[in-house]
Amino acid sequence: MKSFLTDRAFKNVTSRWVIFFIEQILSALAVIFTILMVFRIRVLHLTLNDIIVMLAVNAVISSASMLINKTHHGLIRYSELRDIYTVLRFSALHFILWMAVLPLFTSRLGVGIAFEVATLMINTIVITLLMASFRLLVKEVYQRAVRGLVQKDNVLIYGAGDIGLATKKAIEFDKKSNCRVVAFIDDSPEKVGKVLNGKRIISSDMKTVEAYLLRYKVKEIILSVDLDPSQKTLLSQLCIRRCIHVTEIPPLSQWIKGIFNRRQLKELSIESLLGREKIELLAEKSRMDLEGKVMLVTGAAGSIGSDICRQLCRYKLGKLVLLDQSETGLHEILLELGKLDLEFELCIELASIREKKRIDNIFRKHKPHFVFHAAAYKHVPILEDYPSEVALTNVFGTRNLADAAQVNQVEKFVMISTDKAVNPTNLMGACKRIGEIYVQSLSSTCQTQFITTRFGNVLGSNGSVVPLFKQQIAQGGPLTVTHPQITRYFMTIPEASSLVLEAAVIGKGGEIFVFDMGKPVKILELARKMIQLAGFRPDHDIAIEFSGLRPGEKMYEELFKSSENLLPTHHPKIMKAQRSDIDPQFADMLERFIDAAKECDDKTIRTLIRLIVPEYRQHKSFEHTNVKMIPIVFDEKNDMKATAAETHVKRSTRHEVS
Question: Over 60: is that where the pLDDT of 632 sits?
Answer without folding.
Answer: no
